Amino acid sequence: MSTDAKNAIAQMEKIVSLCKRRGFIFQSSEIYGGCGGVWDYGPLGAELKRNLRNVWWNTMTREREDVLGLDASILMNPAIWKASGHVDTFADLMRECSLTNKRVRADHVEPQDGVVMNYSGAKSPTGWKLARPISVLMKKGEHIESLRKRVRTLIASNAGEAAGKVEEIELLDEAKGDTLERTIDFHPETGGALGDARPFNLMLKTYLGPTATEADVTYLRPETAQAIFAQFKNVYDSSRMKVPFGIGQIGKAFRNEVTPKNFTFRSREFEQMELEFFIKPDEAVEIISGKVDTWSEGADLSEPKPNWGWQMWHRYWVDQRTKFYEGIGLGDVLEYYWQTPEDLAHYARACVDILCEFPFGTEELEGIAARGDFDLSAHQTASTKSQEIFDEELKTAAAKLTAEQKDALRARKQEEGRNTVKKKAEKERREPTADDFAAMEKSMNYFCDRLFAGNYVPHVIEPSAGLDRMALAVIAKAFSETEKVDEKGKKEIITVLRLHPRVAPIKVGVFPLLKNKPELVAKAREVYALLKKHMNCFYDETASIGRRYARQDEAGTPFGVTIDFETCGEKGPELADTVTLRHRDSGEQERVKITDLLGKLLPLVS
Ligand code: ATP
Question: What pTM does this model have?
Fold first, then answer.
């Protein structure tokens, strides 16, 4: 293992241990040995998550005039997941271990070296038999006896009680096979030969209602976005918004991830924060504004304009989301991956992944996709309920087009349609058929007819972020260690969590200098009562003041307020009712009047 990899593991271990020690994140069901890929947020974690949620909600909905919120259910009619494509295609390619049936993601098998050992089967004195051949990789450096023991143990745990005692299982007709280098055909943990790659759907199934037949199957939502599409018309009709506008939602999502890993980064239950921002198709913008503004380097993205096409809107949201991350202290650890045409889904026009530096590598934090009208159109077809909106301005502008202008637009759409058919067929590795072209021609003509009458299915830009990944990203970014010499001259490593004040779970620690001085305690409780109505504070009177600062540094608290004898007026009237305000990151300490505290702190933490 490389030094970098070892350091990354060590860093993650420290972060996981801090999260448990200070009550940020616990393993779910820990007293029962845990529950794979599921995590619980402790008192500090719950506050941190709530702050992140609030920053997202405020920035994305409340502070904007063009985005509304939604809070939809986790369980929905399974027809939604059929229409969205999740039932048929939301799958990872998996390979199964022939020894244990344990699955592994096909693209997660690291190459291994070793010798193949073959057995015709196994039996035990209980009469139990395994009547099929098995092949296992004896890894380079592994002793044959330890391989046999491993195989017996795996067989026994798969067979259950019937196989009897592990040590009494007999492996039959052992034969040495090929020596392999960099093989990816054996399970990385068990060493058992892997079967062919097969798709494995990531949706978690459940049954709705008292009977548990196939007709009652539904799914825990694997993303929050589909509810936004399914409720698009209700929100549109009830809010009197005009396109362009967006609908944002925060909520739980579930994916039966095959290999949940890297702490909360890849979980089976997690929270998403998604925005579907609905825009006019470029053709509608062109008819209304005469020309569509497309993106070029240096384009002004500060304020949306009526002539923006999808490209500008996509770039705008990448810019907005970048500003969001800057506002929570992640600005300098972001990278962008623009998906190539080969990466893109056939309906997507562009997609950028916002990546973040984690100890285990630079990984996706958020995806921002321009998805055309794929989602609303899919629901329109499947539900047979129109998802079109009527745009008076478009109708008026279209009425002024000449017949030639309309024909030219139609011809352009037909050409685009033919190219889409070819591209889709190419992705599916087949020849496009005459029927494909005929269907596309019909659909393009329909689109133009409806457009000229002022109707269209809105297109969408989708910034989709994960709350748990964001929480982990801010913790990982904030984690730092410094060496300190304590009061007795002993060196110790102090952990300081340099969380941005906006997301820090506790904003201010309030400390009376001494706990046995009633006047200090009374004043400190007064300050605590004043602040806690406006922000999450922590009152602490135990241990030395240095220890108390250190405890709050480790919890990520950005400010500390100490109430001392000066506060009580013992060193003259000019310092009476002032406190020491300590800034975690700069170490600066300043004297502030109690009456000025709130005004000073509020802008820093919100
Ligand atoms: P990945 O490629 O990492 O599996 P994805 O591209 O499938 O992610 P999306 O479907 O685009 O992810 O989901 C949007 C966001 O939801 C992701 O950027 C991520 O922040 C979050 N997310 C997705 N899957 C998980 C998961 N298993 N655990 C935690 N967060 C997740």
Answer: 0.86
